[in-house]
Amino acid sequence: MKTNTKKYLAQPDGKFLLKDFSTTYDGHLDKENGKLELEKVKKELDEYQEKLYASGSHSILIIFQAMDAAGKDSAIEHVMSGLNPQGCQVFSFKAPSSEEYKHDFLWRHYKALPEKGRVGIHNRSHYENVLVCKVHPEYVLSENIPGYTDVKKIDQKFWKNRYENIRNFEKQLTDNGTVVIKFFLHVSKEEQKQRFLDRINDPAKNWKFAAGDLKERALWKNYMQAYEEAIQETSTKNAPWHVIPADKKWYARLAISQIVSETFEELNLKYPTLPKVELAQLETLKQQLLNEK
């Protein structure tokens, strides 16, 4: 049973409000049926990925953004389980290094792009530069951008320019054969609280929780505003955002996998067809093998 994945799309050039998107939607499925559907989609992904590699005409870049405990890591794990690891590369972006701060904010993301025939997954991405950096504009000062030596100078014009840089970056990618799929895992504040408590109460999950997580949680409203504006400004026809209901992890994984599968399907990838000369040579080689004693 396919769900209507278009309902998660942040329409390009349209007014975007997070409140218009549910965090609890489950496609009218129960957990067990959702898992069965996910297994079907994984088989589709395996075949599509083989065609992607064989054709060598496109690459796929999957971007995950979310608040802490929204389920990015587990979603990536489940999407990956339907793909051949040899054809994938996963990057988890942390705070920039001193070397990375010596370059523009997109430099390290250019370096992590998948080559044609492969799937790249970015756990956090260049969007951190208009999300966490917007909530904490003091981080921008570490970039040493000429003219921006004080937080007060980081105004709306600065952010508009940065959104434009991102749109141009993604347009360049899509113009050259990279398909960009962007996911925001939309978790509620109440569900995040429960997942934090689970991490504290379960010794096996204690390592996932840090005091800093609560400091960022206290800025929830600021983050939601930053996400809302970033999605509004950068959901384009060539690289739209998908806002995934994430309060139920099993459903988020299914929705994400279905969107990736549908994106592959729309590419209409084919296995390469050999020229007649090479096909004739194959027939000759086949006979040579069959005639072996």
From TrEMBL:
Pfam family for this entry, one: PPK2
- Is Heme among this UniProt entry's keywords? no
**Domain Polyphosphate kinase-2-related, residue spans:** 29-266
What processes in GO biological process is this protein linked to?
polyphosphate metabolic process
Write one Gene Ontology MF term.
polyphosphate kinase activity
Which residues lie in coiled coils? Answer: none
Question: What PANTHER family has UniProt attached to this entry?
Answer: POLYPHOSPHATE:AMP PHOSPHOTRANSFERASE, POLYPHOSPHATE:AMP PHOSPHOTRANSFERASE-RELATED
Protein family (similarity comment): Belongs to the polyphosphate kinase 2 (PPK2) family. Class I subfamily.
This chain's protein is named Polyphosphate kinase 2 family protein
Question: Native species of this protein?
Answer: Pedobacter planticolens
The taxonomy runs: Bacteria, Pseudomonadati, Bacteroidota, Sphingobacteriia, Sphingobacteriales
